[in-house]
Design goal:
There is one protein chain. 13% of the residues lie in helices and 33% in strands. By secondary structure, it is an alpha+beta fold. It has one domain: M1 Pyruvate Kinase, Domain 3, CATH 2.40.33. The strands form 3 sheets. The protein has a 7-stranded mixed barrel. Strands 4-3-12 form a 3-stranded antiparallel β-sheet, with no helix packed on it. Strand 1 and strand 2 form a beta hairpin. The longest helix is centred in the middle third of the chain and has 9 residues. The chain is globular, with a radius of gyration of 15 Å. The mean pLDDT is 95.
Length: 180
């Protein structure tokens, strides 16, 4: 199973969107070099207020490019980096990967998936109605969060558009992704 990096983004500020880059550098145990969310402990401001010492399980944010196409079909104009992702992928159903899946990205980087992104009200300030568009419910009434997945960097490296992403599934039994 493999996919491709479509674009990469980062921001040194705690802003909702991130600027597209020609490349990003992942740092083991920290995240994206120069990004406001990089760090061994939690960097998302709402979580820092709760407990600044908790581990940062949200070092890297990945979204599947197919979501942007889905949103465009609903009338939204969402471009790479707009939803705050660091890596926009294609060809991988990120949301169905189990906890602990490892993504080998490019020649060096290794990211372990920790869980689902929990979209917040900021997404509606970016474009009204977008929060509802990135949430759905399945036949049993369970919430489906489509705003991407989060991970931690196990091995650093440079990540560029067109890099291959190779999937390494964890040992069985697989655990579904939960919000982090």
């Amino acid at each position: 199973m493999s996919g491709t990096v479509q674009s990469v983004s980062a921001s040194p500020q705690h802003a909702f969107s991130k600027a597209r880059q020609s490349q990003i550098r992942l740092l083991a145990g920290l995240g994206v070099e120069g990004d406001a969310h990089a760090g061994a402990t939690v960097q998302h401001l709402s979580r820092v207020r709760q407990n600044p010492d908790q581990p940062n399980l949200r070092q890297v944010h990945l979204i599947h490019a197919e979501l942007l196409g889905e949103l465009a079909g609903q009338g939204f104009d969402v471009r790479p980096g707009d939803l705050g992702e660091n890596i926009l992928t294609s060809g991988l159903d990120l949301l169905t990967l189990p906890q602990g899946t490892r993504l080998h990205i490019g020649a060096e980087a290794l990211v372990e998936i920790t869980g689902l992104r929990k979209p917040c009200a900021q997404i509606d300030r970016f474009q009204p109605g977008l929060l509802k568009a990135v949430l759905a419910t399945d036949g049993s009434g369970n919430v489906i969060r489509k705003a991407g997945i989060m991970g931690v960097v196990l091995r650093g490296g440079t990540v560029c558009p067109d890099d291959e992403i190779r999937v390494q599934l964890p040992p069985l039994p697989y655990l579904p992704l939960e919000r982090v």
